[in-house]
Amino acid sequence: MTVDDLVKHCGMNRNVMNKKIKSFVNKTAVGLIRDMRLEKAYQIIQQNDENISQVAFKVGFKDPSYFTTCFKEKFGFTPSSLLKNVKIT
């Protein structure tokens, strides 16, 4: 899902939609979608045995290193460290 997809689905102007989303969750549409992708990635890493690049692409990130940066910013650890912990347990 992209912001443009969300705009079309909601039937409103991009700026209005961003203001509405920001008023509810204090994030822009881009930030909300990114967080949703990161949450999904977290679940995938815990359940599967895929490498980090595959997970990044699967949830909609085009650059695995940007994905890792965003993941670490959100969760406080890298996706590879999560993957290692999942494999250990």
Structural account:
The protein has 89 residues and is mainly α. The protein has one domain (3-88): Arc Repressor Mutant, subunit A, CATH 1.10.10. Helices cover 76% and strands 0% of the residues. It has helices spanning 3-10, 14-25, 29-47, 52-58, 64-75, 79-88. Helix 3 (29-47) runs parallel beside helix 6 and helix 4 packs across helix 5 (64-75). The protein is elongated and about 45 Å long. The model has no long low-confidence stretch (mean pLDDT 91).
Keywords:
89 residues, mainly alpha, Arc Repressor Mutant, subunit A
CATH top-level class = Mainly Alpha
Largest sheet: none
Strand content: under 5%
Instruction: Measure the end-to-end span.
Output: 33 Å
CATH homologous superfamily assignment: Homeodomain-like
> Which fold name is given in CATH as the topology?
Arc Repressor Mutant, subunit A
N-to-C order of helices and strands: HHHHHH
Find the structural class using helix and strand composition.
mainly alpha
**Total strands:** 0
